[in-house]
Amino acid sequence: MNFKSNKGITLISLIVTVIILLILAYATISISINLTGQAKFQNVQTYMLLIQSKCEVLANEKAIGEIDESGYWGTKEEEGKYAGWYKLGQGDLNEIGVKDAKAKDRILCKL
């Protein structure tokens, strides 16, 4: 009698298994990178909407006379193409309640 003994996996099945694992890893990594980018975009969009709503609240308070210019956030641009706009820095964003948003240059608010 001649019995054939199986002592492990063949080289071909090992290569196929490794290729399948690499494909699954690539798919997982690309999906997670895409989701991370979308989450960052959503955060920025949310911060922009929050800042816009805070500026609209100030504009409404100004319109009905509840607040004067001393209650505004930021510093007013007096000249240039942004004259009349208020420049908000990181301290102003912290005061508004948008602490996670980072003002690298400036954020403008029109009142």
Which strand order does the major sheet show?
Answer: 1-2-3
Helix content: 40-55%
Strand content: 5-15%
Instruction: Please state the oligomeric state of the protein chains shown.
Output: single chain
Give the overall silhouette. rod-shaped
Which parts are unreliable, with pLDDT below 50 for 5 consecutive residues or more? none
Count of individual helical segments? 2
Describe this structure in words.
The longest helix has 53 residues, at 11-63. Helices cover 54% and strands 9% of the residues. The protein is mostly helical and 111 residues long. It has helices at residues 11-63, 90-96, and strands spanning 75-76, 85-88, 107-110.
List the helices and strands and how they pair.
Elements (H helix, E strand, L loop, with lengths): L10 H53 L11 E2 L8 E4 L1 H7 L10 E4 L1
Antiparallel strand pairs: 1-2, 2-3
Can I get a quick summary?
This protein is mainly alpha-helical and 111 residues long. 54% of the residues lie in helices and 9% in strands.
Main attributes?
mainly alpha; 2 helices; 111 residues; three-stranded antiparallel beta sheet
